[in-house]
Amino acid sequence: MAPAPNINPPINVGHIDDVQELRKTKPITVPERYVRDMAQRPTLATSSPCSSSAMSIPVIDLSELVEGGEDEVQREVLKLASSCEEWGFFQVINHGIDKELLESIEKVTTEFFMLPLEEKQKYPMAPGTIQGYGHAFVFSEDQKLDWCNMLALGVEPHCIRNPKLWPTNPPEFRETLETYSTSIRKLCQTLLRFIALSLGLNQDRFNEMFGVTVQAVRMNYYPPCSRPDLVLGLSPHSDGSALTVLQQGAAGSSVGLQILKDNIWVPVQPLENALVINIGDTIEVLTNGKYKSVEHRAVTHKEKDRLSIVTFYAPGYEIELGPLPELVDKNHPCMYRRYNHGEYSRHYVTNKLQGKKTLDFAKIQTQVSTN
């Protein structure tokens, strides 16, 4: 989720161990701070029904949408609508972003995480913020921690950036991130046009109403864990963005992303050169719940590490949001109130990750009559 202005800091939780440094000691037991309660622990059995091809998330071919004939476009738009309505997630192929650029951002990100701890700590994530290197969404001393190191940065508009937190090592990090973020931004704008079309709206509806859009990136590194059955790489949550774009690690890394589908945690198997797209809370509100943001999490692996690069794309903080009038009628009553996006962003980043609980902020609470 993109950083929001004027955030009041939560409790200063003091020193938190770095999971890469913990991993170097190869502990047989996992520190208690990372051990999840029984109900939250991941099921890692390979025989799980969610591993079947029937539970694979849809794949959208962007070249069919952008360059295809009328029949191809119509077919792919229908598939996109189904993906957004039934899954809230899809993988996009032939997205137009150079393979070399994807490899470059992955390379500089990996190099950053492999730096000595003292070098990475030059870019600290201060308590109450979500930019820099460290743990985000930590608000109490007894809160369970994710088995993950992260670097989070505001990208656009420039006023949300904290230049001191943009690494100078590796030297090409900043330039690579700028180029990558520009490409991801164009991809989001293109996807929003076709998502609008899939809803029967003018293709520019979302792009025009979003104003000066907000873009942030979070880079996650998940070291191996001796007891992956006890920990989570990232707690279950939905995203507060409009769209989220995920670049999973290279072939050979562990499969860590899981999405909640029909009460089953479905692993998302990386496709070569594909990007994973998910619907954020903002699109759920705008579509009056037709397209829903989906709870997702990350799990760890006993022997393999994993890298992910996540871009959050959202409306400007000043934008007023609520269900679009075209998507509200007597059969589809209004489910969400109108609110300011900056207000929601502040709410999101000042609460710990708890499934879709943050979206309660926008829901219209209906009272059940007792008569």
TrEMBL record:
It comes from the Eukaryota. InterPro entries: DIOX_N, IPNS-like_FE2OG_OXY, IPNS-like_sf, Oxoglu/Fe-dep_dioxygenase_dom, Plant_2OG-oxidoreductases. The keyword Protein biosynthesis does not apply. One of its GO terms (molecular function) is oxidoreductase activity. Residues 213-315 form the Fe2OG dioxygenase domain. Keywords: Iron, Metal-binding, Oxidoreductase. Pfam families: 2OG-FeII_Oxy (PF03171), DIOX_N (PF14226). Gene3D superfamilies: B-lactam Antibiotic, Isopenicillin N Synthase, Chain (2.60.120.330). Belongs to the iron/ascorbate-dependent oxidoreductase family. This is Fe2OG dioxygenase domain-containing protein. The lineage of its organism: Eukaryota, Viridiplantae, Streptophyta, Embryophyta, Tracheophyta.
